[in-house]
Design a protein that fits this description.
Length: 406
């Protein structure tokens, strides 16, 4: 499917014509977010991270007949945004030793129809930016950084999200900070910024019913979510989301290939107010995550476990570990009320493998990603985890987890 909306077209003609009209100025939140990234970028706020990606693709003029390379180890909303433009997502496998895309695989998949490469910094670990950036330059392609897992990270002194032509961020519940839902598109290219502003101006305010539901969810989240209630919160949110009373990260229809209904929504003012208030604590949250990751690493290494490679200037969102007994471990964590994450559960999380064909993915296409998805769990690093809780999580993990046989 291709989104049929008013305003700028997927091919970009509408964007050019819209530039001559009245274009809004950056909001206070957008201005503060751009300052957070160094001030040499322009930021644009949207209802969700995937809406920000969709806006970027439209502003770049990507549409029917085009291809966009995306990691085969990501959330299904990423190829969903690509398909909304009429373009085709092409899946590149991750490196055999990590969780980020393999540049050699990217190079093999390039065709004359490819217009952009999407580079995801999985769990906050910088991807192979230099290699993929060089590929993009050599083939005259747009480079889009997926920064849904990072805000404070840097690579060789540059903020993640400021290396490519554009980047997008997510403020969903599990991200570095949350406004309930929310996304931000960022670019350092003045021309692209002008087109992005025109796209944003063509989008609409979220309906009142959606804003009210999100505000209620955010209130409940702030007052009742704790690490010990992690599994209960997951079950309650999923159950209520299916009724339509709460807003889930993805609708049931979107997970089975339907066109989403919120892909042309701007960010509501209440979301922006929350985000603006949270920006000042980004550095503190990053330090907390780094301290917890150091703690996990020390204890797990002492227990004989291989730990993930970490970049010194890039705080992790979650602490990924590979195990031989993924399902058994997650079941035990639910019973013992220990917070453990399971993503990515498949190459296009959370879509079951048997439904990947709905998004043009062929089983076996990304063998490293498929293998990793069967082994991965992740340990929490958010601000609700105390050092004592981190020790309890590590103790649980070393007691119940089995190392992978490879």
């Amino acid at each position: 499917w291709v989104a049929a909306v008013s305003g700028p077209t997927a091919a970009g003609d509408g964007v050019s014509s819209a530039i001559g009209g009245v274009v809004s100025h950056p909001s206070a939140y957008e201005h503060r977010f751009a300052e957070l990234l160094g001030g040499e970028v322009t930021a644009f706020a949207f209802w969700k991270g995937r809406v920000a990606l969709y806006a970027i693709l439209r502003a770049m003029g990507i549409g029917p007949g085009d291809e966009v390379l995306v990691p085969g180890f990501t959330c299904v909303v990423v190829p969903s945004a690509v398909r909304l433009t009429g373009a085709v997502p092409i899946y590149a496998d991750i490196d055999a030793e990590g969780f980020n895309v393999d540049p050699a695989c990217v190079e093999r998949l390039l065709t004359p129809r490819c217009k952009a490469i999407l580079l995801q910094h999985s769990f906050g670990t910088p991807a192979a930016i230099d290699e993929v950036h060089n590929l993009a330059q050599a083939h005259d392609l747009r480079l889009i950084e997926d920064c849904a897992h990072t805000i404070a990270g840097a690579h060789h002194g540059r903020r993640l999200g400021t290396v490519g032509h554009a980047s997008f961020y997510s403020f969903q519940w599990s991200k570095p900070y949350t406004t309930g839902l929310g996304g931000m598109a960022v670019t350092r290219d003045p021309g692209l910024a002008q087109r992005l502003r025109a796209v944003q101006d063509s989008f609409v305010e979220p309906p009142l019913s959606a804003r009210v539901r999100l505000n209620v969810q955010y209130w409940l989240y702030r007052r009742f979510f704790t690490s010990r209630r992690y599994w209960l919160a997951q079950d309650v949110l999923h159950a209520i989301s299916r009724t339509g009373l709460f807003i889930g990260s993805s609708s049931e229809g979107e997970l089975t290939g339907d066109e989403p209904t919120d892909h042309t929504w701007r960010m509501a003012q209440r979301q922006q107010d929350r985000g603006e208030g949270l920006i000042a604590a980004v550095g503190t949250r990053a330090q907390h995550a780094q301290a917890l990751a150091d703690r996990y690493e020390h204890q797990l290494t002492q227990a004989g476990w291989a730990t993930p490679e970490r970049a010194p200037d890039a705080p992790l969102l979650r602490y990924p570990m590979l195990v031989a007994n993924q399902n058994e471990l997650l079941s035990a964590s639910r019973t013992d009320r220990i917070e453990l994450g399971s993503w990515f559960e498949s190459p296009l999380h959370p879509l079951p493998l048997e439904l990947h064909h709905l998004y043009g993915y062929t089983l076996g296409q990304c063998p490293n990603a498929e293998h990793r998805a069967q082994q991965i769990v992740n340990l929490p690093l958010h601000g609700g985890i105390t050092p004592d809780q981190a020790d309890q999580i590590t103790q649980f993990f070393t007691t119940h987890a089995r190392p992978p046989q490879e």
